[in-house]
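User: I'll paste a sequence; please echo it back and then give the predicted structure.

Assistant: Echoing your sequence first, then the prediction.
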Amino acid sequence: MSEDTEWNNALDYTKFLKGARENVELMKARYNDLQITENDLEHLRSLQNEIRILVIGNDRCSDTAGNVPILAKMSDISTKLHLRILDSDSHAKFHQQYKVNGKRKTPVVLFLSTEGQELCRWVERPNAAYKMINEATNPSLESRKSELKKLYSDTEIQRQSVNEFINLILRSDFILGRSEHGASSWES
C-alpha cells in the first residue's frame, strides 16, 4: 500500500528536528523532560514484534510538537519501535485520506506492520486535551495555539498521551501475533 512508499519518504526524528523551523526547543524540552515510568518501560521492553510508527504532521502544529517527542522517546527505548515523520503539507494528497469529519487533522499517527499494513491509528491529541480545548471560551486560533502549548507542558496531559500510545503499541503487537505470555496486561 502507499503507507510503505510514504514510510520511505518520511524522516527519522533527528532529521525532522534538524529541518524544523518552529517549536524546535519545545520539542527538545518535551523529549528531555518526559517521565517514563517503570511500568511504561516494562511494556515497551515486552514488545515481541517490529512496529513502524508513521506520524503525518509538521513542526508548526502544536499537537505534533506535543506528541512526537513522546513517540520519539518510546522508540528510543524500544528496539522494536521505528518512528518516522512525514510532512503533512508536502504530502497533502496522502494526508487527505485520513480526514476526520471532513477536515485534515495533525498529527495522524499510524501504527504499521513492517509490510506497511495499518494496525492502529491515533489522531490529533489525547482525549484529556480535547476536553480542555473544547471547553475553552476563546475560539480564536492564536488563543487555542497558546493553550495547546501550555497544555502539552502539563504532566497529566503527557501521561494521557503516553498511556494512549502504549495501549495502541501493545494492541498493534497483539495484532501482529503477540504470544499469550507477553499479552497479559496490555491495557493497564
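The chain has a mean pLDDT of 89. The chain is about 50% helix and 15% strand.
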